Amino acid sequence: MDTQILAHNLSLLTGQTSAKEVLSRSLIANNCSAYLLIGPPGVGKGFLARIIGASLQNETNIYQAHPDRLIFDDLLAKNSSDDSENQWKKSVDDFVRFVYLSPVKSKVKIGILENIDRFSPQALNALLKTLEEPPADTILILTAQEIGRILPTILSRVQVVRVNYLSDEEVRQYSQKYLPDQSEEIVALANGAIGFAHQLANDNKLRKAIIGYADKFALLLKKDIPAVLQAVNIKEREEAILLVQIWLNLARRMLLVKNQPDAVPASLTSLVNNYSDTAL
User: How far apart are CA 78 and CA 74, in angstroms?
Assistant: First the structure.
């Protein structure tokens, strides 16, 4: 593996100094056949998995398709015309088949399985032998949110790497590259999740929707639940979860502004006060 390419690729990920150091040592030593990236949603685990894969194959284009690199979610998308059970079964079978093929272009094959803690027991059982003992020319990169939901037999065979929330300052520096006029808003809403910050900075429709959720936070504080439900008009489960996460983040920031005002920039304090419709 080219160490200069590795350094370049890792520099694309904002923050995560500790994770980068652990990975650099392990990848250069070339003594690990599987990695497990653990961390909350939106912190860059999927992006880091692709960085690792590209680096092992001496590539600098992180998202470019490669014949020796396979992402499990791409298989799910390919098999989406089937019902859920057959979709997962076909995807698992395709993944295992790929793992045991010979490399076409690189010395190693890369298999990426994101959010493995969402996999059903049936899917995990079908993958277990592959995860426990991948071929010598294959490196597997797994991601998950909760380490407690990963089978001990898998944990014993992977290098665990923690990927954490970033500081407000790291998110601020990142968001100022894209939307300097709205960087404080992105900082307040992203809550240290760089992946979510990236979405907010680059997806105008999503940003407007999330700001709309935040604007309804004052109604929640007034305990006007009927008005809240009418205002947000949530219909999808994932959207409801995101809404709750945004409100919990704003509530945490309210407490921080109230209890540690000197630790919060004035611009962020003003923004949180605006969302809560009250000066704390």
Answer: 6
pLDDT score recorded for residue 109: 96
The b-or-e profile of 119-137 (16+ CB within 10 A means b, else e) is: beeebbebbeebbeebeeb
The pTM (predicted TM-score) of the whole model is 0.84
**pLDDT tens digits along 114-130:** 999 999 888 888 898 88
3-state helix, strand, coil in the chain (%, to 5): 60, 10, 30
Task: Tell which residue, 26, 249, 4, 227, has the closest CA to residue 139.
Answer: 26
Minimal CA–CA distance to 183: which of 268, 90, 91? 268
Q: Which residue in the block uniquely carries the two structure tokens 């700001």?
A: 211
Q: Output the pLDDT for position 177.
A: 87
pLDDT for res 136: 92
| 138-144, strands of its sheet edge to edge | 69-71, 109-113, 138-144, 34-38, 159-162
Q: Answer whether 36's CB lies under 8 Å from 155's CB.
A: yes
- With contact defined as beta carbons under 8 Å apart, do 266 and 272 qualify? no
Q: How far are the Cα atoms of 82, 121, 215, 220 from residue 226, in angstroms, in the given order? A: 40, 40, 16, 10
Chain position carrying tokens 């880091």: 48
CA distance 219 to 226: 9
Which of 177, 54, 57 minimizes the C-alpha distance to 46?
54
User: Tokens 């990695």 belong to which residue?
Assistant: 35
Which residues of the chain are modeled with pLDDT < 70? 215-243, 255-280
